[in-house]
Amino acid sequence: MTLTNREIARIFDNIADMLEIKGEIVHRVLSYRRAAEAIRETPQDLQTLAAEGQLQTIPGIGKTLAEKIEELLERGTVDLYERLKAEIPLGVLDILHISGVGPKRAKRLWQELGITSIEQLEEAAKAGKLRAMSGMGAKSEQRILEGIEALRRQQTGRTPLGIAYPLAQEILEYLLELDEAKFGSVAGSIRRARPTIGDIDLLIASDDPDPIMERFVTMSNVAQVLDHGPSKSSVQLHNGMQVDLRVLPEARWGTALHHFTGSQAHNIHIRELFLKRGLSLNEFSLTRVESGEEILCATEEEVFSHLGMPYIPPEIREDWGEIEAALEGRLPKLITLEDIHADLHMHTTWSDGTLSIEQMAQAAYERGRKFIVICDHSYSLGVANGLTVERLMAQQEEIRRVDAKMNGKIRVFHGTEMEINADGTLDFPDEVLEKLDFVVASLHMSLRQPREQITARLLNAINNPHVDLIGHPRGQLIPNREPADLDMDAVFEAAKASGIALEINANPHRLDLEAQYARRAVEMGIPLAINTDAHRASEMDLLFYGVMTARRGWVEAPSVLNTWPLERFLEWTHQRGR
DNA sequence: GCCGTTTTCGGCCCGACTGTTTTCAGTCG
Fold first, then answer.
1. pLDDT given for residue A578 in this prediction
2. Domain with CATH 1.10.150.110 in chain A
3. Looking at residue A155, what is its pLDDT?
4. Spatial distance from the CA of A168 to the C1' of B28 (Å)
5. Residue A296 half-sphere exposure toward CB, CA atoms < 13 A
6. Could you read off the pLDDT of A340-378 as tens digits, one per residue?
7. Confidence of residue A209 (pLDDT cuts 50, 70, 90)
8. Window 85-144 of chain A: CB closer than 7 A to strand B
9. Where in chain A is the domain with CATH 3.30.210.10?
């Protein structure tokens, strides 16, 4: 059983933590952390890359780490890790996750008090044993206990974007009600549209921060105030989420928003470029290193312009090549919400939706869609009241009737979201599929099959000439269900060969394909579709999550079926054998 | 441990808040 990318990343993170506790130089530690992060973001399997000798093409992976990855793939572990584990109990690493405990304290707690678990630490803190250590007092003890509580409130590590984003907007709007607050923005990973969010970052422009900070730390949903200063405050909410608020003067907005949007890797790269030009960048300004002269930037555009760059959209600020692209004038023209005028995957009461065909058509029309495809489930998905062939054909009559009734305001087409069964078979035979306007095929069941089996299932659907689109290809549910163990390289190769499209499912619980896979699909010339998979009218409003995900994947409008004029869309489905 | 339009060796982004340190270390983002 070879290790997955995620498991290898986790081992590198553990190695980084242990090296840090040992007091290893910080840059060696950071190398492991950066490598772990890069591995998590890599859409290809490390195994494949290793076989091709391509591991060092991953940024942050050099000769040494490439060898360690190869050893991990072969043996399941690596000498360094084994030696470190023999030296430092793994429980000490758990303690590191407590807010207020870093490597230095974790090491002293372990070595001076023999504490190797969160439970032991809690017991010692409650017994007042921590204050015996130099540099630790009663307040530190209390803070650690609060940190343990905070960790327990935080049940799952990261929060889905679909929960964090509306919450962040709500808090921001509440704070902006104050006259002292001129304007504000959500920043951090929400602004970059990461599918899951660690904490909420908010930024407000003001010359008088105190009342804003006061309103922030006294919000009714605050469980605990973590920091409370004039420029930065942090709280933890009752739901476990941490929210950071920064307040800065309007004249410094550009540098501030850029700084707090990140990513950290992007910021570091940008700052290095500035340093080479004799400029130091922080959240307040640019500073000429020699003269100390300050240059204020009120907009992000100004920040980039001082490097001779165009504006880089936040969704692609991950140091995945956007800085080089900006310098060379080849930034993508990212797709926008306005580019989309069709939705090719939605449900009705015929299967598990809540509205009739006509109601969904009307709701889509009200949201400016020019055409939609009704794709209800097929019969093998019994829990969703999937359609038999007979009901499917009856549905077609109803769809034709509604399409006629809409009188050209919006076109309504007939499709299916056909089940790809556990044995790889499809629910409808070719002669049925031929009668439909559009065919989506999706995996819902037996998602934990071994890689070869589940990949073969999906390839069977991809290779069927009547299937136009694979719905939510990897089958993940954010935050709790991992994607299926698919050989994505094989999936992309097959999709390329068959000319099929792949979906970016806009529902924030799915966001599937994720950005890095969407980017790879586009690079290979595979068309995409961004669909809401709506089961009710309100879910049509989640389309922007799909668009943000696409933007993260450097996707441009021409690659996306939903941006095409109707004639071109119909032509494309025709060419696919209809 | 990575990496190279100043470098294959010697660098590696930058600042806020807290607590207990009488001048700063630790932690965090």
1. 58
2. 5-153
3. 63
4. 20
5. 7
6. 999 999 999 999 999 999 999 999 999 999 999 999 999
7. very high
8. 96, 98-106, 131, 134-140, 143
9. 252-327
Q: Strand A371-377's sheet: what is its strand order? A: A342-346, A371-377, A411-419, A438-442, A469-471, A501-505, A528-531
Instruction: Note the CATH number of domain A159-248.
Output: 3.30.460.10
Percent above pLDDT 90 for chain A: 84
The pLDDT tens digits for A426-475 are: 999 999 999 999 999 999 999 999 999 999 999 999 999 999 999 999 99
Outline which parts of chain A fall under CATH 3.30.460.10.
159-248
Nucleotide nearest to A131 (CA to C1'): B20
Which residues pair with residue A438 across a beta bridge? A415
Looking at the domain A5-153, which fold is it?
DNA polymerase; domain 1 (1.10.150)
Distance B26 C1' – A298 CA (angstroms): 33
Strand boundaries in A126-258, DSSP class E? 159-160, 183-187, 196-197, 199-205, 222-228, 232-237, 242-248
| A337-575: in CATH 3.65.10.10 | no
Q: How far apart are CA A18 and CA A88, in angstroms?
A: 7
Helix, strand, coil percentages for chain A (3-state, nearest 5): 50, 15, 35
| Inter-helix orientation angle A5-21/A63-75, to 10° | 120
Q: Which nucleotides of B are covered by protein (CB under 7 A)?
A: 1-3, 6, 11-21, 25-29
How long is the CA A282 to C1' B14 vector, in angstroms? 6
Looking across all nucleic acid strands, the nucleotide with the smallest C1' to CA distance from residue A284 is B15
Instruction: Judge if the beta carbon of A158 is closer than 7 A to nucleic acid strand B.
Output: no
A242 sits within 7 Å of strand B by its CB? yes
Nearest residue by alpha-carbon distance to C1' of B15: A282
Q: A232: Cβ under 7 Å from strand B?
A: yes
Q: What would the DSSP string read from start to end of A234-254? A: EEEETTS-EEEEEEE-GGGHH
Instruction: Considering chain A, tell me which residue range(s) the CATH 3.20.20.140 domain(s) occupy.
Output: 337-575
Superfamily of domain A252-327: DNA polymerase, thumb domain (3.30.210.10)
What gap in Å lies between CA A358 and CA A360, rounded to an integer? 5
